[in-house]
């Protein structure tokens, strides 16, 4: 069986690694001149700037069988790129990558009962299967603001996707639009690197979780397996309360720093990870305004009536799904738009057998762990390691997804990871690992915990996972704290969740 993998970023590389491991031959198509996807930092095809660091910890920004060099908590973008180069080399992927190849079309191969045609650079090749791993963060989504086209500031109005550092904005008055990671990180860098004035404009105030809480990366505390179990059996209001408790204990509430008070519900307000943003607000180095109502020349009018002139506007307002190479038939089957893609667990569609998608969902938290689990599910399904989902089950999953169209599509890293782990048959059972119970419940969803059992289990996974859970002093004993006992008791004696 031969498979075309479109994209040589983290998703495409990990998909190819697991396909090759199970006897399926991948050919990886990459339009850029090097592998790495967003982590290349190449202008025009990447939104990563030179000084950028991850907001996900070292442990959770890795695949299960290649640890990072060194022991830094949060890595620079160049470190991630180096890691992906090593990964491709270790697992024999370099020779399978075709660089500078622009895929322009994917459609059914009508010359045989099953198969797909991949068109690129005037050529067409037939493959048994196709994995679309071209990236969820390719097409910045810019909002409509009346008069934006008239903006006359010297720095222009553009997406943070095109931001390459604070240099051009030194001494400038900069408006940063958005409340998610890129907006807050860019605003923080500008405020610390010489911008004359930094204003963040937002539709709503989110809670802000610092990268560290008492020396432990926050993603080790908030993206846990316990959080998934709680989400499945507890009332939504109780899950909301518990998550908000973690966030506010770690970093306080925005109004304590002089920012607007967020909605009392964390689910309604949302949460963003940023280490420096709220302290900079508290120091008066970043001001906050409501959303712009209009732009006229260099002047921006906000929803509260205030007006201010700016030299530059940067929009950190998210991304649209962008898969222009898919045929009209495929797009119609998926009912694809800028936000939605109808698929069973973001991966398969019953009417498109032999076509799979990697990394096309929107979430809070790092993608490396859930993407590897998704890759294993695809490889196990196609290689016959596990039975593929039935057509009836896939149809039911797509129908369930369609009921959520129009609602927020954002999920959480731990929910996505456990979804794929269960599909791939590698969710560790608590009763099998009593010596790791606390780490498995309240520790980080480190990639090694998904090599404890199931296909491709590793004999050293228990020791590796224990070390990763204990990293930064997080989970150093198996004894639950009083709060953990309380929370685990709620999940072990579940109450019926009320209808949403």
TrEMBL record:
Alphabetized, the UniProt keywords read: FAD, Flavoprotein, NADP, Oxidoreductase
The question of whether Coiled coil is a record keyword is answered with no
What Gene Ontology terms describe what this protein does at the molecular function level?
Answer: flavin adenine dinucleotide binding; N,N-dimethylaniline monooxygenase activity; NADP binding
Keyword Translocase, does the record have it? Answer: no
Which InterPro entries does the record match to this protein? FAD/NAD-bd_sf, Flavin_mOase, Flavin_mOase-like, FMO-like, NAD(P)-bd_dom_sf
Fetch the Gene3D superfamilies from UniProt. FAD/NAD(P)-binding domain
Family of this protein: Belongs to the FMO family.
Protein name per Swiss-Prot or TrEMBL: Putative flavoprotein involved in K+ transport
Species source reads Mycolicibacterium chubuense (strain NBB4) (Mycobacterium chubuense)
């Amino acid at each position: 069986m031969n498979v075309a993998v479109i994209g040589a970023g983290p998703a495409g590389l990990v998909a190819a690694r697991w396909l090759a491991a199970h006897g399926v031959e991948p050919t990886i198509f990459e339009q850029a001149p090097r592998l790495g996807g967003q982590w290349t930092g190449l202008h025009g095809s990447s939104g990563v700037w030179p000084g950028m660091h991850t907001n996900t910890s070292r442990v959770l920004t890795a695949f299960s069988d290649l640890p990072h060099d060194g022991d830094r908590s949060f890595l620079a973008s160049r470190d991630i790129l180096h890691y992906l180069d090593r990964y491709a080399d270790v697992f024999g992927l370099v020779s399978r990558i075709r660089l500078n190849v622009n895929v322009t079309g994917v459609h059914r191969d009508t010359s045989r009962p099953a198969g797909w045609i991949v068109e690129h650079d005037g050529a067409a090749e037939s493959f048994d299967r196709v994995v679309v791993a071209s990236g969820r963060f390719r097409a910045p989504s810019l909002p409509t603001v009346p008069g934006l086209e008239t903006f006359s500031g010297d720095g222009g109005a553009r997406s943070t996707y095109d931001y390459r550092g604070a240099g051009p904005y030194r001494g400038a008055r900069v408006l940063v639009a958005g409340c998610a990671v890129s907006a807050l990180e860019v605003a923080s860098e500008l405020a610390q690197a010489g911008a004359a004035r930094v204003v963040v404009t937002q539709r709503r105030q989110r809670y802000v979780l610092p990268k560290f809480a008492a020396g432990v990366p926050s993603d080790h505390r908030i993206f846990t397996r316990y959080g998934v179990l709680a989400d499945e059996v507890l009332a939504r209001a109780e899950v909301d309360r518990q998550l908000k408790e973690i966030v506010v204990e770690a970093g306080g509430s925005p109004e304590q720093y002089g920012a607007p008070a967020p909605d009392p519900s964390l689910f309604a307000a949302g949460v963003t990870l940023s280490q420096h943003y709220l302290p900079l607000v508290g120091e008066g180095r970043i001001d906050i305004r409501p959303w712009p109502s209009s732009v006229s020349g260099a002047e921006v009018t906000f929803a509260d009536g205030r007006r201010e002139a700016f030299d530059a506007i940067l929009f950190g307002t998210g991304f649209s799904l962008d898969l222009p190479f898919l045929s009209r038939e495929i797009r119609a089957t998926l009912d694809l738009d800028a936000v939605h893609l109808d698929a069973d667990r973001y991966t398969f569609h019953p009417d498109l057998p032999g076509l799979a998608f990697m990394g096309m969902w929107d979430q809070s938290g790092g993608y490396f762990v859930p993407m590897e689990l998704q890759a294993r599910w695809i490889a196990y399904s196609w290689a016959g390691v596990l039975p593929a989902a039935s057509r009836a089950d896939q149809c039911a999953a797509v129908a369930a997804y369609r009921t959520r169209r129009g609602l927020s599509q954002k999920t959480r890293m731990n929910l996505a990871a456990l979804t794929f782990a269960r599909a791939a048959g590698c969710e560790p059972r608590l009763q099998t690992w009593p010596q790791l119970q606390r780490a498995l419940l309240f520790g980080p969803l480190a990639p090694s915990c998904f090599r404890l059992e199931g296909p491709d289990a590793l004999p050293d996974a228990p020791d590796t996972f224990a070390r990763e859970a204990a990293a930064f002093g997080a989970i150093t004993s198996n004894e639950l704290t009083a709060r953990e006992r309380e929370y685990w008791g709620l999940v072990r004696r579940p109450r019926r969740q009320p209808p949403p």
